[in-house]
Design goal:
The chain is α/β, with parallel strands linked by helices. Strands 4-5-7-6-8-12-9-10 form an 8-stranded mixed β-sheet, sandwiched between helices. The structure holds zinc ion (ZN).
C-alpha cells in the first residue's frame, strides 16, 4: 500500500421474536413473545492465525513471477478448500508500472455462495519486491518477507475461514486474497500521476469480478494487522466511502473487548485495495490497517525487518475477533 496521510502527522440482550399462534377455539391469532438465542460469536484462535502467517513467510518473498509466489498461491487455494470454501482462482496477467508483466492470481473462497446477502473480507497475499524503505540503502532492491505487510491479513482470514467451516454464519461470506498489491512504484522512482500503480489485483477484480453481477453489502480489508504495538485508526477513504461500516466495525471491536485497539482517531488517507472496490465495484469497503505514532506507518513497513519477530499474536487476535464479531452478528 502507499499512504498519503492527510495529517502527518455480547452482551446482546435477549432478542424477543414476535410469533403468532392460532389459539384453540378458533379465536383470532394472538401475538406472543418467544426468546431467540443471542448471537454466539466463536473465539478467534490467534495462535492459528500466527501459524498461517508464518507458513506464508516460510515460502520466502511472495513476489509475482517467482517460484515462491506460485507455491504459496497453490497452498492458499488448498487451505481455503480444506476449510470448506468454494474456491475460484482468477488468473490474469497485469502490467506493472515499470512494464513488467506479472502472472497474477486473485484467490477467492466463498461460503454459502447461493445467498444474496454477503460480506466481503479481503487482504493481499503478494509481498513487496523491494525493501525500498529500509534504513540501509543496500537493501533497496532486495525483496522483503512481508510477515506483516501481506501475510498477517491473510493469516487472520485463514483462521476466519477455519471458523466459518466449524460454525457457519447466517450470511454468505467471500474471502478474497488479492495479488499484485505491492508492486507499486519504487521509492527511488517518480510516482506517475493519475494512475494507481499499486493494488493491481484488486483494480482488476473490481472491474472484472470473479462472477457476473457480484455484489456484497460491504467489504472489510485487512492490511498490516499483526505488527507489534499497532493500533487502528479510522482511515480516510474508508470514512469517505463507507462511514457506517467503519462505525459498525469499531463498535464491534468495543463490544468484544478490543475498543482500546480501535480508536476513533484520524488514520490519514491510504491507497490500498479497498479503494478500487469502492470506486469501481461500488461496494462500500473499509481498511483495517495498523497505525503508529509519528509517521503513521509501521516501522517495519517495506524494510528487511518485516519478519515474524515483529508479529504480535495479540494484535492478530484483536482484529480477528472483531471481524468474527461483525460477520456472526450479520443477518
Ligand atoms: Zn506494502
Amino acid at each position: 500500500m502507499s499512504a498519503k496521510p492527510l495529517h502527518r502527522g455480547r452482551g446482546l440482550g435477549w432478542v424477543f421474536l414476535v410469533l403468532l399462534f392460532v389459539a384453540c377455539g378458533g379465536k383470532k391469532p394472538q401475538p406472543v413473545t418467544q426468546p431467540q438465542a443471542p448471537v454466539v460469536v466463536p473465539t478467534f484462535d490467534a495462535d492459528s492465525a500466527y501459524h498461517y502467517t508464518a507458513q506464508q513467510v516460510a515460502f520466502g518473498p511472495r513476489v509475482p513471477n517467482t517460484e515462491a509466489h506460485v507455491s504459496c498461491g497453490d497452498w492458499l487455494e488448498g487451505e481455503l478448500e480444506r476449510f470448506g470454501a468454494q474456491v475460484t482462482a482468477q488468473r490474469v496477467t497485469l502490467r506493472a508500472y515499470d512494464g513488467t508483466i506479472l502472472a497474477a492470481r486473485n484467490i477467492i473462497g466463498s461460503y454459502k455462495p447461493e445467498l444474496k446477502k454477503r460480506v466481503l473480507l479481503c487482504a493481499h497475499w503478494d509481498s513487496r519486491p523491494w525493501a525500498d524503505a529500509d534504513p540501509d540503502p543496500k537493501y533497496h532492491r532486495t525483496p522483503i518477507l512481508g510477515a506483516n505487510d501481506g501475510a498477517s491479513g491473510v493469516g487472520v482470514l485463514l483462521e476466519v475461514a477455519r471458523q466459518l467451516q466449524a460454525q457457519p454464519t447466517q450470511i454468505g461470506v467471500d474471502i478474497i486474497f488479492f495479488d499484485a498489491e505491492d508492486y507499486g512504484t519504487h521509492a527511488e522512482e517518480k510516482e506517475s500521476t493519475g494512475s494507481n500503480t499499486w493494488c493491481l489485483g484488486s483494480q482488476y477484480w473490481a472491474r472484472v469480478p470473479h462472477m457476473a453481477d457480484y455484489n456484497a453489502r460491504y467489504g472489510i480489508l485487512l492490511d498490516m494487522v499483526g505488527g507489534k504495538d499497532a493500533r487502528f485508526h479510522r482511515e480516510g477513504y474508508s470514512d469517505y466511502f463507507a462511514k457506517p461500516i467503519v462505525d459498525k466495525v469499531w463498535a464491534a471491536a468495543q463490544a468484544c473487548g478490543y475498543g482500546q485497539w480501535f480508536l476513533h482517531a484520524d488514520g490519514g488517507v491510504i491507497t490500498d485495495d479497498h479503494l478500487p472496490i469502492n470506486q469501481f465495484a461500488r461496494i462500500p469497503c473499509i481498511d483495517i490497517i495498523g497505525h503508529y505514532p509519528e509517521t503513521g506507518f509501521s516501522p517495519t513497513w517495506h524494510t528487511m525487518d518485516d519478519t515474524m519477530d515483529n508479529i504480535d499474536p495479540a494484535v492478530l487476535r484483536a482484529v480477528g475477533q472483531t471481524v468474527l464479531q461483525v460477520i456472526y452478528s450479520e443477518k
